[in-house]
Amino acid sequence: MGTTPAAPHDTGSGLDDENDGRGGRLGRIVRSPLGWMLTGMVGVGLVSGLTATGPGPVPALGAAAAVAVYWAVMRFVARRSTPEIARRGAGREALLGGGIGLGFIVVSTLLITALGGYSFSWVGNGFVSVVWSAVMVQIGASVTEELMFRGLALQALERLWGSRAAIAITGLFFGVAHLAAPGANGWSAVAIAVEAGVMLGAAFLWRRSIWFVAGLHFAWNTAEQLLGIPVSGHTPEGLYTVDVHGSALLNGGGFGLETSIVPVALSVLITVRMIVLARRNGGLLPRRQARR
Question: What is the distance between the alpha carbons of residues 61 and 258, in angstroms, rounded to a whole number?
């Protein structure tokens, strides 16, 4: 169900505002949607930068710290409630999103393999350590990215211009943000924008839960990593090694599965269904309603 952020309330007197016009104006800027979006992204981004490549459970602990930063920014800067990170139902939402993310990767991989694009060889060395490392790293990546792009950016832009504009803009930004990845190019940015940026945005509008989109994102990245498929140009240690055959349009080439036409096409189908469900649930806010 859609949620409309509570409007900020003015706790100061008119006299105080007159005596401290700069502070009042600065406060209004910081509490505006773009203000709390930027404040939150800086805070969550800083936590991510300090913990993403840490050893052992450090990335997962960083994800927990990022959630705390997000809550603080929303509570004290944006002055709104945070039902999107509510603990009640969090496990259910994460599992539902994880199931969709896992299914998306498994179906995409099976189709590419059936069409001759992939072949796999079992590595299996250090099974427990490989799985543990993948899970910790991807918890950190999925939670912090979803807090920034769906929790902060999408909801802030939605307040300004409505859900449709917000999902388009954040999808575009998500694709552009991945241009720094190894092997990235114009097509990889478009593919990431469509299958990740827009699809994850649609997923958030449908469920209005960070746990749901983080679960989807986590299962997607973890499955790729354990299969030995590059994750957005990066090739971390997995349980398999993958050999690619034929056209890069089919297998994604060195960038990974995300630039294959197969998951791009599947993501469009999934996105359309999620948008329909979001509309039925009242999760799509028009511009005039979003600004209230």
Answer: 27
The answer to whether the CB of 167 falls within 8 A of the CB of 235 is no
Do the domain assignments include residue 49? Answer: no
Q: Per the domain annotation, does 180 fall within a domain?
A: yes
Residue type, 16: D
The pair of three-digit structure tokens given for residue 224, joined into one six-digit string: 């790729």
Q: How far apart are CA 65 and CA 60, in angstroms?
A: 9
Q: Is residue 272 classed as helix, strand or coil in its secondary structure?
A: helix
Give CA torsion, residues 174, 66, 279, 87, to 10 deg: 160
Which residues have a Cβ under 8 Å from the Cβ of 65 and sit 6 or more positions away?
47, 51
First to last CA, the chain: 17
Residue 292 has pLDDT above 70, yes or no: no
Q: pLDDT tens across 50-72, in order?
A: 999 999 999 999 999 999 999 99
Instruction: Tell me how many domains the chain contains.
Output: 1
Residue appearing with tokens 């990740």: 196
Q: Say if pTM beats, i.e. exceeds, 0.85.
A: yes
In-domain check, residue 24: no
- Torsion 241-189-276-4 (CA) sign: positive
Pinpoint the alpha helices (H) of the chain: 14-19, 21-31, 33-51, 58-72, 90-114, 127-146, 155-161, 163-177, 186-192, 199-207, 210-227, 248-251, 261-280, 287-290
pLDDT one-digit tens code per residue, 164-196: 999 999 999 999 999 999 999 999 999 999 999
The tokens describing 262, both together, are: 């197969």
134: containing domain? 87-290
Residue 38 lies in a domain: no
Residues 263-281 pLDDT 10s = 999 999 999 999 999 999 9
Q: How far apart are CA 104 and CA 6, in angstroms?
A: 35
Tokens of 110: 């099976």
